[in-house]
Amino acid sequence: MRSQTLWEARKYEEAFGKAISLQERPGFHLSPRTGWMNDPNGFSWHDGKYHMFYQYHPYDSHWGPMHWGHAVSTDLLHWEYLPAALAPDEIYDRDGCFSGSAITLPDGRQLLMYTGVVKERQANGGYNEVQAQCLAVGDGVDYVKYDKNPVLDEKDIPEGGSRFDFRDPKMWREEDGTYRCIIGNRPADGSGQILLFESPDGYAWHYKKVLAANHNRFGKMWECPDFFPLDGKWVLLTSPQDMLPSGFEYHNGNGTLCLIGAYDREAEEFTEETDQSIDYGIDFYAPQTVLTPDGRRVMIGWMQNWDTCNHRRTHDEAWFGQMSLPRELSIKNGRLYQTPVRELEEMRRDRVSYQGVTVSGTIRLEGVRGRRVDMEVTVRPEEGCDLYRKFAIRLAQNDLYHTSLSFRPGESVLKVDRKFSGSRRAIIHQRRSKVNHRGGELKLRIILDRFSVEAFVNDGEQVLSAVLYTDQEADGISFLADGTVNIDVVKYDLV
Length: 495
Ligand code: FRU
Hints:
Oligomer: single chain
Distance between the termini: 38 Å
Strand content: over 45%
Bound molecules: beta-D-fructofuranose
CATH class of the largest domain: Mainly Beta
Structural class: mainly beta
Helix content: under 10%
CATH topology of the largest domain: Tachylectin-2, Chain A
CATH architecture of the largest domain: 5 Propeller
Largest sheet: 10 strands, antiparallel
């Protein structure tokens, strides 16, 4: 290995990663080997395994000079750490190896494309980050940076586009063997656009066109794009910065955006048809997808919120940041649906099932508790009773703590509330989402891991994800109704 910087990172993570016990980590969500993690990068199937790289600062549980961490898995739930793949060690990426993607080349090697960042002194004395796209090629463990890096820089940006916001390439291979990639950029209007580039071989890249433009509709700069066909449509995913809220659909801050539309592959024209959030909870950003060998489109996002990153469970936390559950994507009725990857079902143990339980006030159900749980709950009005006012599920509960999912059918609003999850800071604790229901009948599938809850609504029509800070001893689950409801509950432990 040529780079001292990478060698040091690998030595460091090996020593400090070992010091984190399995109990201190999520059970089946990927966390950094040590230190800080943000965006998923290079999510791919290569050489018989899923590869997940990630934005990584091994030396600290806060963001810092970005490396690429690396892990592999055969089921998307159990991950094995590999040595860090990239370190900021070249003149063109010395201030960070930002987000990017991975593909397998015809010769069997793996090609990574990432954003190299270099700080540049500005006339006002401050610094701005110049961003350009770089390549590295490897065998699935060790990668060599391309000697012609960067392969795309400010010369390749259309007029008016910013060279300080030009990042997060996502590559794919076309059927004719040529390559495309899309990259986030900030045009002259100050918002975001997604640029399309092409390459005959994965090494030489040329600008093609603007694939999609924000025109200041959804936040500002568009980060971390992904683009793929799904169920007869094409889907553009991106993560807009600086969103304004819009009804219950979009929230303040960094958000997620899914544009579904038509793609004319000949003309390479994307026509937007609908827009929606990807996740309606608190913690989800910068997702990437992979096509599995059996043809499923699976997405993983960073299960965090940039605005709550300074909030730690403990002062001496050895890791920060985790990935979401892998989610299978589909389109139904023009909307993006997400369901937990089916491999999760292999982890289910100790089924506990209740059918048609009447709830008025608060109840607990024998055998229904835990912090690594897969639970399906269907709620409906009790026959012969008026429509209930509210139904809530309390999770990760003891005398001090609980996190709730509460549904008010009169307003069609589902709320996740983690105010009592152990947080001691004035961070965002709640999110509300409009949900569909049939006269008060709603279906939820709730996945709990040690430090998170992900609620899938109506078989994946919406998902609300949130990080929890709660002590592991708080493992109670209870059900509350204001009015009278009738519920079915099927619960498994995930082991
Ligand atoms: C999104 C992001 C990317 C960038 C990376 C840096 O969360 O800002 O745009 O590549 O994080 O760590």
